[in-house]
Write a structure and sequence with these properties.
CATH topology: outer membrane lipoprotein receptor (LolB), chain A
CATH class: Mainly Beta
Number of helices: 6
Oligomer: single chain
Number of domains: 1
Number of strands: 12
Shape: globular
Helix content: 10-25%
CATH architecture: Clam
Radius of gyration: 19 Å
Strand content: 25-35%
Largest sheet: 12 strands, antiparallel
CATH superfamily: Lipoprotein localisation LolA/LolB/LppX
Structural class: alpha+beta
Length: 260
């Protein structure tokens, strides 16, 4: 199985698990529209724009005066006077200063399947995704490997985290020689930076989206080599809380090591 298909922590396994559940929630297939709306101004408690936002905007239909919130779209963009390289360095410095993050997540896979759960990040090297039912998955990144535990199949597969663009999120010292900046996009109150790796074995691109100018990671987007886009939105995020190492214990073995 190619890592291009599982560049967002085993997308194939997650999609398969969701497809097997009749009650699984789905959305329209994820495309570049996910990127187009990523920088829209929005309240901190609502990171992703509502799918029904256009239909419910009565002021746009009736011609009613814009609210104060609508006027924020005319506000200046963050970091407007800084170069792309300077903005990227600001975000990289924020990442290198991170120790722990935890909170809730909502994931939209390339198929449109939606899953939710809890995440825990302990830098460097540790990441845990606990998926809510009916998704039977537990995903743990531990010292260079990503483990995907499927409770329904009673299997645990693993592969190197260094071959996915998520390595930029978990590595202690951001590898500036390896990272290639693809794009720097500014919004009214957030910034998005897209990275790719100069290493041929690392497949895909990673877009990190943070609230700005007081930086706080709120979303990431992974694009695989087939153009599939996975969006992970973070909510109720807490920084700096002590996270027990037991959270990142490798799940029970019994599956495959996916090197390619």
């Amino acid at each position: 199985m190619s890592l291009a298909v599982i560049s967002m922590i085993s997308i194939v396994c997650i999609d398969a698990a969701l497809a097997a559940q009749p009650a699984a929630q789905t959305a329209p297939q994820t495309t570049d529209a996910a990127l187009a709306g990523a920088l829209d101004p929005m309240p901190e408690t609502q990171i992703a724009p509502s799918p029904d936002a256009d239909a419910s905007d009565n002021s746009a239909v009736s011609g009613a005066p814009q609210s104060a919130e609508d006027e924020t779209f005319d506000a200046p963009l963050v970091y407007a006077g800084e170069t792309d390289a300077a903005v990227a360095e600001t975000l990289i410095a924020y990442l290198e200063d991170l120790d722990t993050l935890n909170g809730d997540f909502t994931q939209i896979a390339p198929s449109g399947a939606i899953s939710t759960g809890r995440f825990y990040l302990r830098r460097p090297g540790f990441l845990r995704f606990e998926y809510d039912p009916p998704t039977p998955l537990l995903i743990v990144a531990n010292r260079g490997l990503v483990y995907v535990r499927d409770e329904a199949l009673e299997t645990t597969d693993s592969y190197p985290v260094g071959k996915t663009p998520l390595k930029f999120l978990v590595q202690k010292k951001f590898d500036r020689d390896d990272a290639r900046i693809i794009a720097v996009d500014r919004g009214v109150d957030n910034v998005a930076i897209t990275f790719a790796s100069n290493d041929e074995e690392t497949e895909g691109e990673l877009t990190l989206i943070a609230r700005a100018p007081d930086l706080a990671l709120r979303r990431w987007i992974v694009r695989d080599l087939q153009g599939g886009i996975t969006v992970v939105t973070l909510d109720n995020v807490k920084r700096g809380e002590r996270l027990a190492m037991d959270l990142f214990r490798a799940p029970e073995a019994g599956g495959r090591f996916l090197d390619r």
